[in-house]
TrEMBL record:
InterPro entries with a match to the protein in the record: Kinase-like_dom_sf (IPR011009), Prot_kinase_dom (IPR000719), Ser_Thr_protein_kinase (IPR050167)
Taxonomic placement: Eukaryota, Fungi, Fungi incertae sedis, Mucoromycota, Glomeromycotina
Classification via Pfam families: Pkinase (PF00069)
Protein name in UniProt: 10861_t:CDS:1
Organism encoding this protein: Paraglomus occultum
Cellular component GO terms, alphabetical: cytoplasm
PANTHER family in alphabetical order: AT08303P (PTHR23257:SF963), SERINE-THREONINE PROTEIN KINASE (PTHR23257)
One record GO biological process: signal transduction
GO molecular function, one term: protein kinase activity
Ranges for domain Protein kinase: 1-192
Coiled-coil residues: none
Amino acid sequence: MQYMEGGNLRQYLQQKKLTFRDKLDRLRDIISGLKDIHQQNLIHRDLHSGNILNSNDRSYVADLGLSQSVNSQKGEGQVFGVLPYVAPEVLQGQPYTQASDIYSFGIVAYELLANTYPYSDLNLEDTNLALKICQGLRPDVDELKIPPLMKDLIKSSPINTKEIVLLSQKPEKRALEPELKKLEKEIDQPLTEEQKVLISDFIQARKMVIKDRNNEEAEDRA
């Protein structure tokens, strides 16, 4: 696997002055990478800007160390990851799902578009932050100087809405496919073969880990 000279997304944002088009490209990369992970029936469980690596002006979802199969019951009730990116239902003790990954992506999308750490105006060590997130606290998307399309992509919404948004309080209101289609309309640029290979490398490496874990569990049951 090649060296990611751009570092993680937070470092990349500090090093580069990205245009809005650049940010759309990065978002498309991240959505595509996460979608590929989900198509392997995996949950990442630790998606944040530190786990998105950059090389040759492309972004790749990395560090699958905490990922697991959608059917796995391991770690149920435990909270992994970095607090600002953790979905509210997980903070309330529910299991991680692919929908919780999508919520994490929504926070990453805000960070990328705003070029600032989520909840940067709050004390992230505040024990009440998790409670506030469960009660509906979200980054202020409306203050961003971005097109309404992008605000609609990531903003939170009332619980009873039919709208699909990334930061919805309800997991079933989150989805990647509509957002990818929106971005593809904005970006007329196909994925590179290099990106496809790197994403495949990440997926294959994780599949090997999952296989080893399944073998260990089978041995434990024997």
